[in-house]
Design goal:
mainly beta; Porin; globular
């Protein structure tokens, strides 16, 4: 239980530090990935109009996973009044924990997506597909093993409310 408190504290710290940086978005998403089971997540997002960087953190409660991402949206263009598209590269880090095991991984990200905005850009519906190969460490029953996943293509759709 103490480790959950530390994770929660880290999420709060990340959130408060991001408030001065940018617009803040809270939402939820559904992710499908051929190499893992589908999952739902609660998310916290921060982005600025002056910077191409988007920072976000997901908590997958059903999988006991916390993930953090820093993406550079080097293409971010408006197609129509309510529709934007983006192309990104970035980095990811994730931590999955169970009673006697955990996974810790990091990797790079390359992808693209669509954003649909409504209510003066305060409500966003998004979809993105990313190639996210990663590597890390897995501990299970006091034994360590490498965690290597070169084929990882999460496809995510979700909803965010921007403040």
């Amino acid at each position: 239980m103490a480790s959950m408190k530390k994770v929660f504290l880290a999420v709060l710290l990340f959130g408060f530090c991001s408030l001065s940086f940018a617009h803040v978005g809270l939402g939820g998403s559904f992710t499908y990935n051929a190499s893992t089971s589908p999952s739902c997540a609660a998310s916290f997002t921060a982005r600025s109009d002056e910077s191409p960087w988007v920072l976000f953190m997901n908590a997958h409660i059903d999988e006991n996973t916390i993930s953090a991402f820093a993406d550079n949206w080097f293409v971010n263009e408006r197609v129509a009044e309510h529709l934007d598209y983006f192309v990104l590269w970035g980095v990811s880090a994730g931590f999955c924990f169970e009673k006697k095991s955990y996974d810790l991984g990091t990797g790079c990200r390359f992808g693209a997506g669509l954003d649909f905005f409504f209510f003066r850009r305060h409500l966003e519906i998004f979809a993105q597909a990313v190639w996210n190969p990663y590597f890390g460490l897995k501990k299970e029953d006091d034994k360590y093993s490498p965690l290597i996943r070169p084929v990882n293509f999460p496809c995510t759709a979700g909803l965010r409310v921007w403040f």
